[in-house]
Model the fold of this input.
Amino acid sequence: MPKRGPAGPAAKGTRRSRKDDPDAVIAALKRLGTKKVRDGMARYGIPSDKAFGVPVGKLQKLAKRLGRNHELAAALWEAGWYEARMLAAYVDDPACVTPTQMDDWCNSFDSWAIVDTVCFALFDRTPHAWRKVRQWSRRPGEFERRAAFALLWGLTVHDKQAGDEPFCEGLLLIERAASDQRHFVKKAVNMALRAIGKRSPGLHAAAVTVAQRLAASADAAARWVGMDALRELTSPAVKGRLAARRRTASR
Done:
């Protein structure tokens, strides 16, 4: 009897698992899509010209079945479909993501939904995240600059080890970008400011100071960012949560 060849994926002629095959995954996405969801994307400012219309919940369920797979994520991103790129953010391995990959993906961001999903589900878990916040905050493109502040926003939740210092540096970037009147930039700047202010009592005081300066600005965009952030940061709910954390920390 002839000897059997190696069973691993490197064996010549071996068929790929459907979980590892980007074509099979994209075919599955196509089956999950609906015209109703695709038509509704425009209401949220999401381009639908290369989309199947798959709800986010179904994307997340598919991602759980697929598991982490850096190579699959790269292939899905290259395919260019909206849902394939969303899925790439969920299945990629943060430990395998390089600064070059982050820049390449950032260069092709074309909607707030892609920006936020990639930054919240993947990029803010990489060791390069803080450097990219600083670099991307200086980029001129609307979605590239949004990515800087979406990433900063995500780090307030997922970087459990960081102290207050890097977030104080983030407040400087927020203040510099607050006069950007583009909708998707100023919304992300505002959300990052609010998120930093809710992270710790010390950061709350610093964020409120920045928000007050912005609220008094002659610039309309900066004034909106500051006033909207102040409404939440000075609310009884936020103050109560921070006071509870202060009491817990003092025990």
